Amino acid sequence: MDDFDDWRRMLEAQHRIVTRAQLLARGFTDDGIRAQVHARRWQRVHEGVYALFSGPLPVEARRVAALLACRGGAVLSHETAGELHGFVPSDPARRIHVTVRYGCSAVRLDGVKVHRSRAFAHIADHGSEPPRTTRVHTVLDLALAAPDAEEATRLAHRYALGAGVHPLALERAVELRRPPRHRRAIEDAVALLRDGVLSELERRYLVDVEQAHGLPVGRRQAPVLVDGVRRYEDIAYDLPGGRVIARLDGFGTHRDRRTALVDRRRTVVAAVAGEVSVPYGWEEVTRFPCRTTREVEALLHAHGWADEVQPCGLCERTSGL
């Protein structure tokens, strides 16, 4: 690069992080580079990678430095890609995660976790700056890194919702990569998404209330007409004696007055139609699932469900049923 404007644009794009090769191409010598580092005007970040400034490195500069240090190509991945896509909370202290091609020679970088992928050619979000994995493959990477199958299902479900990943896209990503671990767990997360389980609270209700106690599995995202507009109920049990609705999040977590109004109108419309509508929040579902189960059971019995719930391990420990 002989043109100063091109050099300046490159420095801006790379957050003033450059490689030795780029410096040499610009006319610097190895002795000159060492002199700048020795004078503490520049700093060596990784082998052959330099910051043309002193002081702490912003996270944007650390990301670029990690990519430039991986010869042969790399993309940001896992939590780092999730941060850039906006569905993983930012943490400046977190290690930078990059993925390189499988078989790439060993790379040890301070503050960087290097992953290898056989599907490297298929996982990049082409055109993104800085280079990163796609949303769906970022979700899959995070789920595959889970310590156990249960956590893999939870993370795949949670991050797919946060990233706006369609269950079919996640299913196709699993089929493409055929991961040797947690594949069944991630397929379970795909099934949850297909069945309309659209929040972590809804997943916990399914697992801790319905499945753990043998309740019937209600219909998810059941459409209802409210003041001429189609809305959706979280869970609906359609029984011989009528419909019972479980609405998850209650009245304490609405973000605005309009959402609260819509929820109140749904309750009124259900009551006018002779349907029972009960709200449950995070605490009732996660801290007191057995009590919640008994309440739902009573409503289902009143509307024609003839079976009985089964005690779970928590019931037996706390006599909560």
UniProtKB/TrEMBL annotation:
<protein>
    <recommendedName>
        <fullName>Transcriptional regulator, AbiEi antitoxin, Type IV TA system</fullName>
    </recommendedName>
</protein>
